[in-house]
Amino acid sequence: MALGERVGHVFRGAAIGVAEAVPGVSGGTIALVTGVYERLIVSAGHLVNAFRYAVADVPRKRGWARAGQQFRYVHWSVVLPVFLGMVPGLLLAAMLLEPVLTEYPEHTRGLFLGLVLASVLVPLSMIPRPRHAGHLVALIATAVGAFLLTGLPQAELTPHPVIVLIVAAVAVCALVMPGVSGSFLLLTVGLYEPTITALNDRDLGYLAVFGTGMVLGLASFVKLLQWLLDKHRRMTLAVMAGALLGSLRALWPWQTEDRTLTAPGDNLLPILGLFLLGLALVGAMIVAEQRRLRRAAEALTEEPAYQPPASYRTPADR
């Protein structure tokens, strides 16, 4: 992989990290738009298998063979740069976005609304043909469910370690599911501010419990999602698109504290401008990714066929 593409993966990871800190925006959506989603999901599945085989085989003195094989299947050239960008992106967003979201909530939601709306095109374009009515029904049903879910009033949970563990396990599923925001889930149950504060204050105890929950949730969910993408790709992508559409409710700029939607009011023009900027940014990313894929496909088709050395060829080949 070229150095420029590795650097690009670092920036993709930073964008995913920033998205995960923003309520209503899914890091899985950004991964989908930037073209690294399926490689990350496949790699996560192999990592889960590797740890499972290590726990099962090593104590029984069967060695590291199966675990090592799974580690070799991981797309490390993608995973490592994305992770390298994701961690500082998340920390920087936690530090900078909290005051912006507090002081300019309508403006930021307007920008994010444009980002997520344009992202709906990605899973829709990935649904292989033929498509049938069942895909449309799944899309609409998921959109309605996500719309109702994002309208729930905010709850307040005491950040007890067991509660943090469970919520983190569920929230990490949102990290790998485009259209579902882990930060918004934390906000809904009242653990968003404690988690952001723990990140900013480097509360290692809280972060250790939260990280353990994430690992458990990831190990439980990622294999299921990988299986769905492999066996039921059309339906899974339709559900993803529906989740994206339904989640737009959380990003409507004009809403009350109890999440009741209202008609457009103040700051209409600047919010509209930020909305269009969000559409343009994701549109540019989609176009850039399509061009990259097209160039890669052209390079493969133009590559000359392999010719074995003369000593290995038969007289007829020569």
From TrEMBL:
The chain crosses the membrane at residues 73-97, 109-127, 133-150, 162-192, 204-225, 267-288. Keywords: Membrane, Transmembrane, Transmembrane helix. Coiled coil: none annotated. This is Putative membrane protein.
